[in-house]
Design a protein that fits this description.
about 500 residues; mainly alpha; two-stranded antiparallel ribbon; 22 helices; globular
Length: about 500
């Protein structure tokens, strides 16, 4: 491991890599300060600009955006009671009441310190857990990789934003898009309709940016203008010793909860922040303060959503399963660099993996000075006029799509999926399963066919191998769990109505 750390240190020792990391963190904070945007949108928006960068620089740019966005969402949550990212919803519970009491600066300082502490803890867990898990995954063959892909696709049921069937429909669209192009085994053209532009498949970069960024902009433009809530002055950022002491326990709770939730695919930072806030309230000596400007509540929420970053990267790096939509896009960035996330990445390119570990540490350290000294500037970002913001983002989307292949095909694809994503959002179809289907579809298809070839078309190969059998069982449980939850919720509601 020491040798790999040296390789990772060499890969990030270039000053250019450090500048890219800093710019990523700064971009993440800036974007997440704008209410209505998210970490997913920030990463998708800047994904095309990773072309021309080294794999380490590209990955650290996106990782920096992710880290910065997790903290930046707290600023509008505190000042406007409008979370900059979905993960910052629970931050409004105590952050905004603190601002109302005249402690907006103190709330931002609490959020910043909790974010950095939890982010560093998440990276530490990632560095300790990922290598042995990847070493175990090296024992996998085609049936196991197919089972892993099925498990990743089963996560679609957890990405639903209401209707599970709509989530499955979205995922199936992604899988259908994944089969367009050349057959990986025979080389025959599939669903290209005679177009040579589709022989290489649909540009999943354009699909991801279109559905995650362009569609969101179109959706936000269509929303009625909301009345802006009162924004408070920042004031002093200084914390007392007693404030820091009260932060210790909720930070620890948020760190543990966030990492556990992060490792579970598709659980997400918003769940981690809510659970952390609730658990901190249970263990607090002053639970009555929660929801009324509690430093402990704010700390737990921010610690929970920031420690998720390290946990989310565990399944993506070791198994090739995105932990959430952000890591799905980061996985796409690795594939665009000619790399395949999974256990072989640890064996073949330890410089990239351990460079990412060290780069994440640096990214979290950058959040502290940027968050504290730039708080007043970032606060002004919350009032950027939407007529300026949305056209700027659309221009970046189009520019990035064109730069990806230096022709107009990705731009047309971007526009098409921007419109498709817009109507999906209007109809409440989640777009995250579509992205997951595009990414995991080729992996599932290739390993399914390889497994059947190596077993002479005997499908029992998937249940006679212990690891693949266990993965299929977990995938099945993942699929049916949302239905179990829904049935239980309905029974509880019916019971309460009867009473």
């Amino acid at each position: 491991m020491f040798e790999n750390l040296i390789l990772g240190l060499k890969s990030i020792s270039n000053p250019g890599v450090q500048v890219v990391t800093l710019l990523g963190v700064l971009a993440g904070i800036l974007v997440s300060c704008l209410p209505g945007l998210s970490a997913t949108m920030a990463v998708a928006l800047l994904l095309p600009f990773t072309f021309g960068l080294s794999p380490v620089s590209a990955l650290l740019l996106l990782a920096g955006i992710y880290v910065g966005a997790m903290f930046g969402g707290a600023i509008p949550a505190i000042l406007l009671s409008t979370p900059g990212t979905p993960a910052a919803v629970s931050t409004t519970f105590d952050g905004y009441p603190m601002a109302q009491k005249g402690y907006a600066g103190k709330a931002i300082s609490v959020a910043c310190i909790a974010s950095v502490s939890a982010g560093l803890f998440g990276v530490l867990v990632l560095a300790l857990v990922a290598p042995p898990l990847a070493e175990f995954a090296l024992k996998f063959s085609a049936p196991e990789y197919f089972a892993v892909a099925v498990f990743g696709l089963a996560v679609i049921s957890s990405l639903s934003e209401g209707s599970i069937l709509k989530a499955f429909a979205s995922g199936m669209i992604g899988l259908l898009l994944a089969v367009i192009g050349m057959d990986p085994m025979t080389g025959f053209a599939r669903f290209t309709f005679g177009s040579t532009s589709l022989l290489g498949g649909v540009s999943f970069l354009a699909v991801m940016v279109g559905t995650a960024a362009t569609a969101e902009v179109l959706f936000q433009i269509d929303q009625p203008v909301k009345e802006v809530k009162q924004k408070f002055e920042i004031g002093t950022l200084r914390l007392r010793k007693a404030d820091l002491q009260r932060m210790v326990k909720p930070t620890a709770i948020g760190c543990v909860v966030g990492v556990i939730v992060g490792i579970m695919p598709a659980a997400g930072a918003n769940i981690a922040s809510f659970v952390s806030w609730a658990q901190a309230k249970v263990w607090s000596k002053h639970p009555e303060e929660f929801g009324h400007g509690s430093i402990e509540g704010l700390t737990a929420s921010e610690a929970g959503n920031n420690s998720v970053v390290g946990g989310d990267l565990v399944p993506m790096l070791t198994l090739g399963i995105p932990g959430d939509p952000v890591t799905a896009i980061m996985m796409g960035a690795l594939i665009l660099q000619g790399l395949r996330p999974g256990p072989m990445l640890f064996a073949e390119r330890p410089d990239i993996v351990y460079g990412l570990f060290l780069g994440l540490i640096i990214s979290n350290f950058w959040v502290l000075p940027l968050g504290l000294f730039g708080a007043r500037f970032f606060a002004k970002m919350t009032s950027v006029p939407k007529p300026i913001l949305w056209p700027t983002i659309l221009a970046l989307c189009v520019t990035g799509a064109y730069a990806s292949e230096a022709n107009m095909i990705p731009v047309y694809t971007l526009g098409l999926f921007g419109v498709i994503g817009y109507f999906m959002k209007k109809a409440k179809f989640p777009v995250a399963p579509l992205i997951l289907g595009v990414l995991l579809g080729p992996i599932a298809e290739e390993n399914l066919r390889r497994s059947l070839l190596m077993s002479e078309m005997d499908a029992t190969v998937f249940i006679t191998r212990p690891i693949s059998l266990v993965l299929f069982i977990i995938a099945a449980l993942t699929l049916i769990w949302p239905w179990i939850q829904e049935r239980y919720r309905k029974k509880v509601v019916e019971r309460n109505v009867i009473k």
